[in-house]
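Page 37, top half.
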Amino acid sequence: MTAFLTVFLSVFIAELGDKTQLATALFAADEARSKWLVFLASSAALVASAGIATLAGSLAREFVEGPMLKIVAGCGFIVIGALILWGALKPA
């Protein structure tokens, strides 16, 4: 149960305010669209995306050892964060 909560909270917090959530909110704001359709479609998309990520992680584990995979993932997050900061701080 601890692993479930760790994964759930990590993904949930990462998704808050994400472009995916904003796009879903915009679709739901359209009166012509069923709110249930938006919920089901966005949920299915997130499940499919998580499935692809899980498969990719499982395949990566076959070729890269655990500690190295964590180092590569951590470096990736640092690079993404640096690029976001660079874009935010760069004069317009």
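Page 37, bottom half:
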Amino acid sequence: MENLKHIQYTPTGVCSKVINFDLSEDGKIYNLKFTGGCPGNLSAISKLLEGADAKHAAAILTNNTCGPRQTSCADQLAKAILENLKDQNA
């Protein structure tokens, strides 16, 4: 497998405390893990996004909210992905 950049992101406004994932040079997501939050839902998201295109995943997950919050763990993941894709293309 090609080089992977490890990302550890601290989300805000959600139950999850840390989001860890690896981003490949060609923009794929690997090894996604959430610490805290809703284990069933976040485990499912992690499985669904293994090897997925990061730009596509961020587009789908952006602006998803959780209850009365203005964000969600999925939205926070999208923010982490987009921040790191910008860094990768800089």
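Margin note: DSSP finds three helices and three strands in the chain.
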